[in-house]
Every structure is written in C-alpha cells, then in structure tokens.
Amino acid sequence: MSLEAIYKSLTKEVEKMQEVESNIQKRLQAYQQLAGQLSENENVDKDLEVLTDDNKIYKLIGPVLVEQSLSDARDTIKKRLKFIQDEMLVCHFKL
C-alpha cells in the first residue's frame, strides 16, 4: 500500500470516528435534558403530594392560567414522569 492510500484510508476512518462522536454527543445532550426534566417533574410531584383538595392549582396554557383539579394535576405529572422515564430508557439504549 502506498503512503497516499494509507493516508486516505486513515482520513476516512477519522471522519467516521468524528461522526460517531458527534452522534454520541447529541444523544448524551438529549439524555441530560431528559434528566433535568425528570428532576423538575419529580419536584412538582413532591409539591403536589402535600397539597389538599382545598388548594387551588393553576396550569399555564399559553399566556393564560387555567384552574386545574388536584387529581388532574397529579395524573398529568404521573403520565409525564412515565413518558420521560421511557424516553430516557430509549436514549440509554441508543448510547
């Protein structure tokens, strides 16, 4: 093999490696973002646990605050936590 052929081969391998590193970095960022969302939602879940039905809860929809029942808020958070955890598993297996 000539020196030029070896150089071209190594260049291609380096490009492949850089592409793999880039993909790993993107997936890691997505995983970290999901981890942050999970933490935020776990905190909301803890906050909702101490509330009673007498407390008023509002949900931000666009620029408007809309009243929401405590049970609806808890259900929404539980579903969101499940979704985020499932997405984290998908990201984990892709890494």
Describe this structure in words.
It is a single chain. This protein has one domain: Helix Hairpins (Orthogonal Bundle), CATH 1.10.287. Helix content is 76%, strand content 11%. The chain has two helices and two strands; from the N terminus they run αββα. Strands 1-2 form a two-stranded antiparallel ribbon. Belongs to the prefoldin subunit beta family.
How would you summarize this macromolecular structure in one to three sentences?
With 95 residues, the chain is mainly α. It is built from 2 helices and 2 strands; from the N terminus they run αββα.
Please outline the helices and strands.
Layout: H1 3-49, E1 57-61, E2 64-68, H2 70-94
Antiparallel strand pairs: 1-2
Radius of gyration: 23 Å
Level-1 CATH class name: Mainly Alpha
Mean pLDDT: 94
In the CATH hierarchy, the third-tier topology is known as: Helix Hairpins
Total domain modules? 1
The shape, in one word, is rod-shaped
Number of strands: 2
- Sheet-strand content, in percent, reads 5-15%
Order of helices and strands: HEEH
InterPro entries: PFD_beta-like, Prefoldin
Pfam families: Prefoldin_2
Family: Belongs to the prefoldin subunit beta family.
Protein name: Prefoldin subunit 6
List keywords for this structure.
single chain; 95 residues; mainly alpha; Helix Hairpins; two-stranded antiparallel ribbon; PFD_beta-like; unfolded protein binding; coiled coil; Prefoldin subunit 6
